[in-house]
């Protein structure tokens, strides 16, 4: 059986990590059996979570893991997609994972001391003091460097959030009147969308982007629908602070 290594659950959502949510959601959507092992990125192959262990090998990076799962366990989620829909899925995945994700990371790791303390407790909850503060401070510096390397971390907060608002508006428009991102059938891109969006609107991290997203009924309904369908044991997510 596949072992999924990820952070402990928090905030009444599947995981405080967007990509841990993405991968666990994909496993459930695809009907692939797995077990969860809670850990920290210190022990991960690439220094990040999630990663999996299957048939004696460890695999990291959610994109590469899903490609592996599709090859060895079948591609039941995306086999119905037309070429145009696959292109749309890739474009949405890039918006979600390469842009909106970083806006959310800025909100958690750099925007306000209260956000940082909430994020630190969720991510590093398994470590005793004073180790938690030391490890968290090291990772915060790393994330700051990654934000600057991406480019978004070099902008003023107002510009960062304006860019995030545009992402959210586009996603809201795309989901209007639809059950899933590409229509009435789920596909693998929904795992990515749910992972990013649930960590934007159903966690106690404040930002103008979150406030705007909460005003978009299509996004709130989508996250509620995804969680109740694929994580019924968690119940409805709690929206707002």
UniProtKB/TrEMBL annotation:
Name of the featured protein: Glutathione S-transferase family protein
Residue ranges constituting the GST N-terminal domain according to the UniProt record: 1-77
InterPro entries xref list: FAX/IsoI-like, Glutathione-S-Trfase_C_sf, Glutathione_S-Trfase, Glutathione_S-Trfase_N, Metaxin_GST, Mito_Protein_Transport_Metaxin, Thioredoxin-like_fold, Thioredoxin-like_sf
Pfam families for the chain: GST_C_6 (PF17171), GST_N_4 (PF17172)
Upper taxonomic lineage: Bacteria, Pseudomonadati, Pseudomonadota, Gammaproteobacteria, Methylococcales
């Amino acid at each position: 059986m596949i072992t999924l290594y990820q952070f402990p659950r928090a905030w009444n959502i599947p995981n405080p990590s967007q990509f841990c949510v993405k991968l666990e959601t994909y496993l459930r959507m695809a009907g692939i059996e797995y077990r969860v092992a809670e850990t920290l990125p210190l022990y991960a192959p690439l220094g990040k979570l999630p990663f999996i262990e299957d048939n004696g090998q460890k695999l990291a990076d959610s994109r590469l893991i899903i490609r592996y799962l599709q090859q060895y366990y079948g591609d039941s989620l995306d086999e119905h997609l037309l070429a145009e829909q696959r292109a749309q899925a890739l474009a949405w995945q890039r918006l979600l994972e390469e842009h909106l994700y970083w806006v959310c990371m800025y909100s958690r790791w750099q925007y306000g001391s209260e956000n940082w303390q909430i994020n630190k407790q969720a991510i590093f909850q398994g470590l005793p003091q004073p180790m938690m503060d030391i490890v968290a401070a090291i990772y915060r510096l790393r994330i700051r460097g990654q934000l600057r390397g991406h480019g978004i971390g070099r902008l003023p907060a107002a510009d960062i959030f304006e860019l995030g608002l545009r992402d959210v508006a586009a996603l809201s428009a795309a989901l209007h009147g639809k059950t899933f991102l590409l229509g009435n059938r789920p596909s693998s891109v929904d795992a990515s969308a749910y992972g990013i969006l649930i960590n934007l609107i159903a966690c106690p991290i404040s930002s103008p982007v979150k406030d705007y997203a909460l005003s978009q009924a299509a996004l709130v309904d989508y996250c509620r629908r995804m969680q109740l369908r694929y994580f019924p044991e968690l119940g409805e997510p709690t929206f707002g602070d």
